[in-house]
Write a structure and sequence with these properties.
284 residues, alpha+beta, Ribosomal Protein S5, domain 2, Alpha-Beta Plaits, 6-stranded mixed β-sheet, 4-stranded antiparallel β-sheet, binds 4-diphosphocytidyl-2-C-methyl-D-erythritol, binds adenosine-5'-triphosphate, EC 2.7.1.148, 4-(cytidine 5'-diphospho)-2-C-methyl-D-erythritol kinase activity, transferase
């Protein structure tokens, strides 16, 4: 598919967890969490044009090894929405994969959410249709938040959302760094030690708070010790005001006061670690 006339486009915004407090292991194996989601202005790109059938092509830096078949969350989102809406029409989609896969910044979840937003436009389905909400929840705990792609608090499995005013965070320069390998989410949650370290207190207007934790950091470091190196490198960057791991890792991020400091940090880390992936962005 070429992004020509008739093609609609959505960004699958990279997700970061400014806080991720794990409270309890649930009987179904999932965990009750309290998290603060924020979104970057950049991410993957998804385009769609009218077609008889549903199809997907993938390009971009992280296209390799990612199936464009039924196990792709974009295809799952599209086929579920098509079936639930009893539609005869399909969509020819193209995903430009800029975010590393299984990296804690929601890549697949953001793609699924972008597909739902995009196909709602293409197929004239109201964005607030309950069907879309149900499909989003069924595709993954992060998908409802990614569908919203606004700063919000997530409770339950991370899918009970409460939007928050985020004037202090909007346009905040952010640097994302991944040490270069995938970390699957399930084993990291499974490695949580079961200790409830306390709830997530948020007061508006939001401002980053040293009390915000990521309780998955220690189990993620067990799977991928290089996370500790990434965090240390980010913390050492002049102007980094808040540094954490995102989601289940391995991507870590730092917020900066100025774009200049963020740019300098990125250049320094790229020069020192050729194998690390970095992305500079602004919070939405
Ligand atoms: C770590 C986060 O990214 C933080 O935003 C999310 O909690 C994970 O969201 P996600 O990748 O969309 O998660 P899912 O695809 O639903 O689940 C992947 C696996 O993570 C574990 N999982 C996920 C969410 C949650 N609240 N508790 C869990 O234990 C489960 O083992 C599950 O099988
Ligand atoms: N479009 C997609 N992009 C990335 N991964 C996908 C996609 N579709 C399916 N997947 C599968 O989903 C899994 C998780 O990928 P994803 O990039 O969402 O993880 P993540 O960044 O750790 O997400 P989260 O922060 O939600 O835990 C991968 O194993 C991948 O094979």
């Amino acid at each position: 598919m070429k992004g020509g006339p008739g093609a609609l486009r959505e960004t699958a915004f990279a997700k970061i967890n400014l806080a991720l407090h794990v409270r309890e292991r649930l009987p179904d194996g999932y965990h009750r969490i309290e998290t603060l989601f924020a979104f970057c202005k950049d991410g993957d790109t998804l385009e769609a044009a009218p077609a008889d059938d549903i199809s997907l092509t993938i390009d971009g830096a992280f296209a390799d090894g990612l199936s464009a078949g039924e196990d792709n969350l974009v295809i799952q989102a599209a086929t579920q929405l098509q079936a639930a809406s009893s539609l005869a029409s399909g969509a020819a989609m193209r995903l430009t994969k800029a975010l590393p896969v299984a990296s804690g910044i929601g890549g697949g979840s953001a793609d699924a959410a972008a597909a739902l937003r995009l196909l709602a436009r293409l197929w004239n389905i109201p964005r607030d249709s309950p069907v879309i909400g149900e499909i989003a929840s069924s595709l993954g705990a992060d998908v409802p938040a990614c569908f919203l792609s606004e700063t919000c608090r997530g409770d339950g499995k991370g899918d009970r959302l409460a939007p928050l005013s985020s004037d202090n965070l909007r346009e905040c320069p952010v640097l994302l760094v991944n040490p270069g390998f995938a970390v699957p989410t399930g084993p990291v949650f499974a490695g949580w030690d079961g200790a409830d370290r306390g709830s997530l207190a948020l007061s508006e207007p939001l401002k980053w708070d040293p009390a915000w934790r990521n309780d998955l950091m220690d189990p993620a470091k067990t799977v991928a010790p290089a996370i500790g190196d990434v965090l240390a490198a980010l913390e050492a960057c002049p102007g980094a005001v808040f540094t954490r791991m995102s989601g289940s890792g391995a991507t870590c991020f730092a917020l900066f006061d100025t774009v200049g400091e963020c740019d300098t940090a990125a250049e320094t880390l790229i020069a020192e670690h050729a194998d690390w992936w970095t992305m500079r962005s602004l919070l939405r």
